[in-house]
Amino acid sequence: MNASSMTIPDADTIDSRELFSRLLARKWWIVSSVLVFTAALTAAAFLMTPIYRATTVLVPANTTQGSSGLGALGQLGGIASLAGINVGPKGSMTDEALAVLKSRGFTEQFIVDERLMPKLFSRRWNAVTGTWKGRPPTPAKAYRYFNEKIRSIDQDKKTGLVTLQIDWKDRNEAALWANELVDRLNQVMRQRAIAESDASLGFLTSELQSSNEVVTREAIGHLMESQIKQRMMADVTKEYVFRIVDRAMAPDADDPVKPQKVAMIAAGAFLGLLVGCVLVMLVSGSSQRTRSDA
């Protein structure tokens, strides 16, 4: 045989064969690890309390702060500003409404009115005696838990659509809370608009009575007319800031968002395989070093 025809095994090939032989020698360790981890995560997936998601989709209503046609009244900018009226470009109330929706005050009031504290902290609530086990949770903790774990709000900047999601263990309550939050938000913004219009009208009425200039009185009259229209819209429009495109519905009982059972089972199998292989390599390496020392 010519020397040129002889092939020298590659070191990587030898290492791969040695690695495979080590794993194969203790294959039952790996199989056992896969079974244990798969069984553990399978049990966890079926024992965990399912979490359901209720979603409502909203679109901003055509409600704007200020009023149309007032841009030409720049000479009354000072009076309009004192009256709380925006005579510049139309400003959407959407940003303000979203800020209110996310605010601590609005959320805490919702939790109090709906009596959600025992539900949010059920492990610390004694349903038999109707008392807390130890120190009761504070409204601040309830707000953080609700805002970080239960409620999520997303706004599509391109379409303007707002998505409100509630993740909760009771699918019917999840839908109920999502819809109630939207209804409350519209009601709060209506009340704010009415109060602001009333205050503006009161100020403008006083200015109208004290002014003798025809142009000024005419302009104030236009401002008052715009505020009367604004108040009327707030008074009669139920969906004042957001119109509901898709009202939240209770999801199916077999359609939770958490836990993802298939994903957890697959993760258990993968984790078991990984742990088993690492364990075999550690034991094999330790045994080899022991023999070398001997």
Description of the structure:
The protein has 294 residues and is an alpha+beta fold. The protein has a domain of 195 residues. It is built from ten helices and eight strands. The strands form three sheets. The chain has a four-stranded antiparallel β-sheet. A hairpin with a 4-residue loop joins strand 4 and strand 5. Helix 2 runs antiparallel to helix 10, helix 5 crosses helix 7 and helix 8 runs antiparallel to helix 9. The protein starts with 10 loop residues before the first helix and ends with a helix.
In the predicted model, the low-confidence regions spanning at least 5 consecutive residues are 3-9, 64-75, 87-91
Structural class: alpha+beta
DSSP strand (E) fraction?
5-15%
| Coarse morphology | elongated
Specify the helix fraction band.
Answer: 55-70%
Q: What is the count of β-strands?
A: 8
Q: Supply Rg.
A: 33 Å
Mind describing the biggest β-sheet? 4 strands, antiparallel
Keywords:
294 residues, single chain, 4-stranded antiparallel beta sheet, elongated, two-stranded antiparallel sheet, disordered N terminus, alpha+beta
Brief synopsis:
The chain has 294 residues and is an alpha+beta fold.
Task: Give the helix/strand layout.
Layout: H1 11-25, H2 27-47, E1 52-60, E2 64-65, H3 77-82, E3 91-92, H4 94-102, H5 104-113, H6 117-120, E4 125-126, E5 131-132, H7 139-150, E6 151-155, E7 162-168, H8 171-210, H9 214-236, E8 242-246, H10 261-293
Antiparallel strand pairs: 1-7, 1-8, 2-3, 4-5, 6-7
Helix pairs in contact: 2-10, 5-7, 8-9
